[in-house]
DNA sequence: GATGAAACACTCTAGCA
DNA sequence: TGCTAGAGTGTTTCATC
């Protein structure tokens, strides 16, 4: 379904989706732009390419309150989806993972300031499915979201 | 430096960077494509737009071993940058955050399988600056990396 | 600093071999 | 898949507001 050419195309696009089709062709060894075009559109249809987005420097935009929240819930695994859906619709939430262990959810949030952050915490603490939440301020973003090192 | 128009442009681009300039113009209320073009290029120069990338569905590409690693180091804060640099160059690492509290670093990794994951853990355990690491398998990705809910 | 127009090169894509 | 033709897109320049 996804062959070696597709993988090479994806490797380029996940780092930079503004590369001309012609140039992609050269790099992957498929020299017609139309062939690349058709493959990319197929990958979008199949949902393998989910989106093409601009990654922003949120610190430069004065989002200085990045935090990671660890959530422990009252109920067991079956509630993962239900509680998960509530968590992911909280404001300023970038990612939510359900993990196994003493912590149930890990949430990444990007906030402009403490007030924004407290807005999340207020909603979080009002959810009675939640037993306990630990929120940690990110002191340094050592590596921002970046999939370039992933080898397909 | 970044005005309301820029913020509106960024709001569009962080969700979809493939929107024609003309259409962006209509949406933000700046009706010439050339004005939008100049602003976007300025935002790139300033590093506010870091990259334009394709977001992929890694689960569909059989990356079934997503994990979050909590790292506690032996040394104090000053080592954050040094150890951080080592951590971010580990294979298959998507993000690294230095946080305050009992855990020092949170690492997000995306792996195809257990072997790939163990490759990271091997390198991690061989670093003597690290006191302890807890790795958690992601059971469900409730919300994958997505900045669309962030209000600029 | 924005607009609209014009000109140009570049880019994408549909149809067909 | 490759080729080609036509439509669409981004960028620059200009006069004007």
Automatic annotation (TrEMBL), chains A, B:
UniProt cross-references to Gene3D superfamilies, sorted A to Z: 3.30.70.920, Winged helix-like DNA-binding domain superfamily/Winged helix DNA-binding domain
Signal peptide region: none
Domain HTH asnC-type: 2-64
Species of provenance: Acidiplasma cupricumulans
Gene Ontology molecular function: sequence-specific DNA binding
Protein's UniProt name: HTH asnC-type domain-containing protein
InterPro entries recorded: ArsR-like_HTH, AsnC-type_HTH_dom, Dimeric_a/b-barrel, Tscrpt_reg_AsnC-like, Tscrpt_reg_AsnC/Lrp_C, WH-like_DNA-bd_sf, WH_DNA-bd_sf
Alphabetized UniProt keyword annotations: DNA-binding, Transcription, Transcription regulation
CC annotations in GO: cytosol
Pfam families: AsnC_trans_reg, HTH_24
GO BP annotations, alphabetical order: response to amino acid
């Amino acid at each position: 379904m996804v062959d070696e050419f597709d993988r090479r195309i994806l490797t380029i696009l996940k780092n930079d989706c503004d590369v001309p089709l012609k140039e992609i062709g050269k790099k992957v060894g498929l020299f017609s732009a139309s062939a690349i075009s058709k493959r990319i559109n197929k990958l979008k249809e199949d949902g393998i390419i989910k989106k093409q987005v601009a990654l922003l420097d949120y610190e430069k935009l004065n989002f200085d309150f990045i935090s990671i929240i660890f959530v422990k819930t009252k109920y067991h695994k079956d509630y993962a989806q239900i509680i998960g859906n509530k968590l992911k619709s909280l404001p300023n939430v970038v990612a939510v993972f359900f993990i196994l262990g003493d912590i149930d959810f890990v949430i990444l949030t990007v906030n402009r300031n403490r007030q924004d952050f407290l807005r999340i915490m207020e909603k979080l603490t009002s959810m009675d499915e939640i037993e306990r939440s630990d929120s940690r301020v990110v002191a340094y973003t050592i590596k921002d979201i970046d999939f370039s090192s992933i080898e397909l």
